[in-house]
Amino acid sequence: MPRRPENLYAQYHAHVYFGPDTLAEAKALCERAGRELMVVVGRVHERLVGPHPHWSCQLAFDAAEFDQVIGWLEANRDGLDVFVHGVTGDDLADHTTHAMWLGEESELDLRMFRR
C-alpha cells in the first residue's frame, strides 16, 4: 500500500490521470468508483486543468473512506496513474506535502499556488 499523506484530513481528492488512448478506461474506472464507493465523481477533463499535467477526473471522498478508496483504486486502476491529496485549504501544501501517488509520479505545475 502506498504511503498515506502525513496527517489524516477530513477530505481527500484522487485525480485519475489518462490520455486519449486511455480515456474509455478512465471513464469506466471513475463511473465504477462512483457506483461502488462513497465518492463524488467530478467531470472527466479531456484537457489540462489546474496543476495537473494530464487529462484527469477527480474523485472526492471523506477520511473515513480513505483506506477503502485507496485500496480499491490500487486494485482497480489497471495501470492508470492516480494523484491523491488531502484538502486543507492550503493548495500548495495539499498538492505537495499532503499528497501521494498510485503509479508513476508526474510533475505538477504548481505556479498557480505560488502567487
Automatic annotation (TrEMBL):
| Enzyme type, top EC level | oxidoreductase
Pfam families cross-referenced by the UniProt entry: DOPA_dioxygen
Which EC number(s) does the record attach to this protein? 1.14.99.-
Q: Which SUPFAM superfamilies does the entry link to?
A: DOPA-like
The molecular function terms in GO held by this entry are:
dioxygenase activity
Superkingdom field: Bacteria
Please provide the record's keywords in A-Z order: Dioxygenase, Oxidoreductase
> What protein is this chain from?
DOPA 4,5-dioxygenase
